Amino acid sequence: MRKKMLFTAAAGLAALLMPASRDGATAQTRTNLDIYVVDVEGGNATLFVAPSGESLLIDTGNVAPAAAIRDAERIMAAAKDARLTQIDNLIITHWHGDHYGGMAELAKRIPIRNFIDHGPNVQPAPAVDEFLTKVYPQLYASAKHTVAKPGDKIAVAGLNVQVVTSAGETIKTPVPGAGAPNPYCANYTPPQSTGEDPMSVGIYVTFGKFRTIHLGDTTKNKEFELMCPNNRVGAIDLFLGLHHGQASSNSEVMIHATHPRVAIMNDGTRKGGEPDTMRVVHTSPGLEDLWQLHYAEEGGKEHNVADSFIANVDEHCTGQYIKLTAEGNGSFTVWNQRNKFTKIYKASGK
């Protein structure tokens, strides 16, 4: 009896010491890919957590001092939910304040091991250049700094992560299974764009049969270079980001050709969700659902999705995130932190 009582007490103590999952259940060994699309108020912060526990964060939110603190804390809330003690890889897609802004504040809160970017800033901006000269080198001084090139692989145990765009260049060799002619290229002439957006680091990620892409703010001219005359990406399950739902990106050449089943848009209340973009996304062949970080004022009721699929419906919100959990067989679940609405997407069989 005494042995049984000791065993029970020890088991109870172990249970108390185990970290809790989102719903309070005891945390188990991780077997899935988790993706957190964090609300940084019209900026970008997307956190990948592999089954191995290794992490990849894309961007860190906004640059204004109060916004940088707010956004770093929101990223930390997702990192805490994922039980992370460090960020293994941080990609800054490009040097706009809504993408690199919270980096220094985040680095105060959690170690970052590998800083990845496209190289020097190409758009005149004294504040950015000062950051890159005085602050950024201090952040990666005791870590690793990598300048990404198309075709590079980013080491995240359990995932295949390939850079497909960087510094205005795109991959020339299709990812496995892609490379077919892209019918949406015919008679399409993309508008030209310069500055930092077309320099964005974009990645293609696979986990078993699950496929997703995040292209930062890559513009239509670079989408065209990546996807024409042949589709170098192929079909995907999830399209992330969508450049906040802005019409300088998100051509049919890209969105329709990749046939995403689900898209998650990093818009803000008064940023993005533009009607032209919403039309392209909603008419994409095979799209099952669009999820939004915010109700987009510009889109109005006609273009916004149902509230169940929107993480933040009020302008003055508490920054709720959208979480996707993918299985290696290609199935996945999307969860809205605000209302706990959940939808399961079965494996496509492709």
Write the layout of secondary structure elements.
Elements: H1 2-17, E1 33-37, E2 46-49, E3 55-58, H2 65-81, E4 89-91, H3 97-100, H4 103-109, E5 114-117, H5 126-140, E6 144-147, E7 153-154, E8 160-166, E9 169-170, E10 202-207, E11 210-214, H6 220-227, E12 238-241, H7 252-258, E13 262-265, H8 275-282, E14 289-294, H9 300-303, E15 310-312, E16 322-326, E17 332-336, E18 342-345
Parallel strand pairs: 3-4, 4-5, 5-6, 11-12, 12-13, 13-14, 14-15
Antiparallel strand pairs: 1-2, 1-16, 2-3, 7-8, 8-9, 8-10, 10-11, 16-17, 17-18
Helix pairs in contact: 2-4
Cα end-to-end separation = 56 Å
Task: Give the DSSP E fraction (strand runs of 2 or more residues).
Answer: 15-25%
Helix tally equals 9
What profile does the largest beta sheet have? 9 strands, mixed
Task: Enumerate the strands of the largest sheet in spatial order, edge to edge or round the barrel.
Answer: 6-5-4-3-2-1-16-17-18
CATH architecture: 4-Layer Sandwich
Shape: globular
Succession of helices and strands? HEEEHEHHEHEEEEEEHEHEHEHEEEE
Number of strands: 18
CATH class wording: Alpha Beta
The CATH homologous superfamily: Ribonuclease Z/Hydroxyacylglutathione hydrolase-like
Mean pLDDT: 92
Low-confidence stretches: 1-28
User: Structural class given helices, strands, pairing?
Assistant: alpha/beta
- What is Rg? 20 Å
